[in-house]
Write a structure and sequence with these properties.
The protein folds into two domains: 9-102 and 238-357, Metal-dependent hydrolases (TIM Barrel); 122-208, no CATH class. It is 46% helix and 11% strand. The protein has helices spanning 38-47, 64-71, 103-129, 136-143, 150-158, 161-178, 182-198, 201-208, 228-237, 256-264, 283-302, 315-321, 325-331, 334-342; strands at 22-27, 50-55, 78-86, 92-96, 241-244, 270-275, 305-309. It is globular, with a radius of gyration of 20 Å. 43% of the residues are buried.
């Protein structure tokens, strides 16, 4: 998911001064569904006052050669080697301070990469049977050398005017059906709200790209993802801490009561408790904000780690983030608290060169 809509930072309504020393512990490069290289990310982060960035691409660690190259450069913005792993239960787990050369992690990610290719190929074929102009080659080309995912399917689909016209037809059917089905009504409202930020792309996911999508038999699941316990263990064995990402996407499976039990039993090391949204104007976003306040209380009460995220994919994510005074200020010092509480080694980051971050 992308935290912020792509906007011109010079035209942000009510923009305030840039907040310095903010932190973002969840970001993506073009190796998954981001639109920047690692170096571009660090440069745009520094230009917008972000002092720490964690590279957390989907199911792929930082390439070792890039890790070694970046280590040789004294970037203004400090960085952390991380990863975002999918689980069989649906949760996404952020690993911070992971060894990018860990054999088990590399072996797992290689397997997942192939399954993602198989999935994207099958979904593209199914969409083509509906009349959409899309091919597996087009989808895979969007991922370049990285891991292919749903955003690449969406990008290939909505990039053609003829597809947008056909998509509008399915959205109309979705709207009609939602009026007589409470579950569909909520999904339609979620998509409609999301479309204010991400355009028609927001409808593609509930229409086609999940197991119980509105249009059946399009989404293909070649699921070889491990269960959550195994995922957390893999992150620990790679030297990292395991953080639950964007809880609201799997809130039905991981209720607040279930999460509290998991935190108490230390099945997870922590959770993202502060996420960046550009606005909180809609009823849905206000509800999310209230839920995250509740989550933050549970995290504090159980003593697990609290992380912060803008789930960055685009340069504009950092531009908006740095000028969202309340949120950006709330992220300052987040990684120091995680290091101090967990005593995780900072070896797989550039924080180890700074005495105030040294705990290994």
């Amino acid at each position: 998911m992308t935290a912020f809509q792509a906007v011109d930072s010079g035209s942000i309504p009510g923009a305030r001064i840039m907040i310095h020393n903010s932190q973002n512990l969840h970001s993506h490069t073009f190796f998954s569904d981001g639109k920047m290289t690692h170096r571009e990310t660090l440069n745009i982060a520094a230009a917008n006052g972000c002092s720490v960035v964690a590279f957390t691409d989907h199911d792929i660690p930082m390439p070792v050669e890039i890790f070694n190259e970046l280590k040789k450069v004294n970037y203004k913005t400090k960085w952390i080697s991380g990863i975002e792993l999918s689980t069989k239960e649906g949760a996404h787990i952020i690993g911070l301070f992971v060894d990018p050369s860990n054999n088990e992690l590399l072996k797992h990610c290689s397997s997942v990469k192939q399954s993602r290719i198989d999935k994207a190929t099958s979904v593209a074929g199914n969409l083509a049977k509906l009349g959409f102009s899309i091919s597996a080659e087009e989808v895979l080309s969007k991922a370049t050398e990285g891991v292919v995912g749903k955003p690449h399917i969406v990008e290939a689909l909505v990039g053609k005017p003829e597809n947008v016209s056909l998509l509008a037809k399915y959205i109309s059917e979705f709207e009609k059906a939602s009026k007589n089905n409470p579950e569909l009504e909520r999904e339609y409202k979620d998509a409609k709200d999301g479309s204010r930020r991400w355009g028609i792309s927001a409808f593609v996911y509930p229409l086609f790209l999940k197991k119980e999508a509105f249009i059946p038999d399009i989404y293909a699941d070649y699921d070889n993802t491990p269960e959550l316990d195994r995922t957390v263990k893999m992150i620990h064995e790679a030297g990292g801490v395991a953080i639950l990402a964007h809880w609201h996407t799997e809130i039905k499976t991981f209720t607040i009561e279930k999460l509290e039990t998991m935190f108490l039993s230390r099945k997870l090391d922590g959770a993202e408790t502060k996420l960046g949204w550009k606005d909180m104007e809609s009823e849905i976003d206000r509800e999310k904000l209230d839920r995250y306040r509740e989550l933050a209380k549970i995290v504090a009460r159980t003593g697990v780690l609290a992380s912060v995220s803008i789930d960055a994919h685009l340069p504009s994510d950092y531009e908006v983030f740095s000028r969202d005074e309340a949120f950006a200020t709330a992220t300052v010092g987040a990684i120091e608290k995680i290091i101090a509480k967990s005593e995780v080694s900072t070896k797989f980051s550039t924080l180890a060169s700074n005495k105030k971050f040294r705990h290994d």
